[in-house]
Amino acid sequence: MASDREDDTLQDGLDAGGLFDVPEGYYPPEKEPTYAEHKMLSGQAVRVRLVGSHPLYGDLLWNAGRTSADYLEERAGELIEGKDVLEIGAAAGVPSIICAIKGARTVVMTDYPDPDLVDNMRQNAASSAPLIPLQSSLHVDGYKWGNPVDGLLSYLPEGSKSFDVLIMADVVYSHREHPNLIKTMQQTLKKTKEAVALVIFTPYQPWLLPKTEKFFPLAEESGFKVTKIFEKLMDKVLFENDPGDEQLRRTVFGYEIRWAPDQL
């Protein structure tokens, strides 16, 4: 059995005089959060924080998110005022924030349940609170597509069991997640002819567009009706150095998905 002194010597040996300490500057510093501004059609500015180092997020406001926000603001009287809204894959959450500002009754902003992503959404929701009317409520939660939705539905006012509007901006690029996105739509979209899921995206990898578009026939096989509502050509591409057809990389496609009549 080792003596106390021997124990001390062994411990000192394990400490190794800092031999295994990581030198300062060995790892590159984490990328600091950046900020971006979305100018509403009304002239108001919404400033959001971005998590630049996160692989699911990036340090940009993506074109589909901006376009979704504009589309919803333009049609707030029809789609948003007094309605219950769920955003799936919200990232910085600009469309959710716009819906809350424009008078939605309830907005639930969600993205993958990663602590950094969820915390960032919460910060953006909190910083936007002064712009949101008292009758609107904006909530933030982590949600993995296809998982049970009880937690999301719990934010709805008493008597409501589903959402009037789903916002799905730049989510269908994840081809293997198409069945999970459909499942979430089935579980959360209100079964009325007015309820709608807005699917808006840009083909940042144009050669994969045929795979991305397979989402829409899958939705129709699952009880929905799909309607293409617009193609919008942006002034410039989001990622300048990416390969592929430049015009497609500048184009934002918009679709409405509603319940098929035989499902109502």
From TrEMBL:
<dbReference type="GO" id="GO:0071885">
    <property type="term" value="F:N-terminal protein N-methyltransferase activity"/>
</dbReference>
<dbReference type="GO" id="GO:0000183">
    <property type="term" value="P:rDNA heterochromatin formation"/>
</dbReference>
<keyword id="KW-0963">Cytoplasm</keyword>
<feature type="compositionally biased region" description="Acidic residues">
    <location>
        <begin position="1"/>
        <end position="10"/>
    </location>
</feature>
<comment type="function">
    <text>S-adenosyl-L-methionine-dependent protein methyltransferase that trimethylates the N-terminal glycine 'Gly-2' of elongation factor 1-alpha, before also catalyzing the mono- and dimethylation of 'Lys-3'.</text>
</comment>
<feature type="region of interest" description="Disordered">
    <location>
        <begin position="1"/>
        <end position="23"/>
    </location>
</feature>
<feature type="binding site">
    <location>
        <position position="169"/>
    </location>
    <ligand>
        <name>S-adenosyl-L-methionine</name>
    </ligand>
</feature>
<comment type="similarity">
    <text>Belongs to the class I-like SAM-binding methyltransferase superfamily. EFM7 family.</text>
</comment>
<keyword id="KW-0808">Transferase</keyword>
<keyword id="KW-0489">Methyltransferase</keyword>
<feature type="binding site">
    <location>
        <begin position="89"/>
        <end position="91"/>
    </location>
    <ligand>
        <name>S-adenosyl-L-methionine</name>
    </ligand>
</feature>
<dbReference type="InterPro" id="IPR025784">
    <property type="entry name" value="EFM7"/>
</dbReference>
<dbReference type="GO" id="GO:0032259">
    <property type="term" value="P:methylation"/>
</dbReference>
<dbReference type="GO" id="GO:0005737">
    <property type="term" value="C:cytoplasm"/>
</dbReference>
<dbReference type="Pfam" id="PF10294">
    <property type="entry name" value="Methyltransf_16"/>
</dbReference>
<feature type="binding site">
    <location>
        <position position="145"/>
    </location>
    <ligand>
        <name>S-adenosyl-L-methionine</name>
    </ligand>
</feature>
<protein>
    <recommendedName>
        <fullName>Protein N-terminal and lysine N-methyltransferase EFM7</fullName>
        <ecNumber>2.1.1.-</ecNumber>
    </recommendedName>
</protein>
<dbReference type="GO" id="GO:0016279">
    <property type="term" value="F:protein-lysine N-methyltransferase activity"/>
</dbReference>
<keyword id="KW-0949">S-adenosyl-L-methionine</keyword>
<feature type="binding site">
    <location>
        <position position="111"/>
    </location>
    <ligand>
        <name>S-adenosyl-L-methionine</name>
    </ligand>
</feature>
<feature type="binding site">
    <location>
        <position position="62"/>
    </location>
    <ligand>
        <name>S-adenosyl-L-methionine</name>
    </ligand>
</feature>
<dbReference type="InterPro" id="IPR019410">
    <property type="entry name" value="Methyltransf_16"/>
</dbReference>
<dbReference type="InterPro" id="IPR029063">
    <property type="entry name" value="SAM-dependent_MTases_sf"/>
</dbReference>
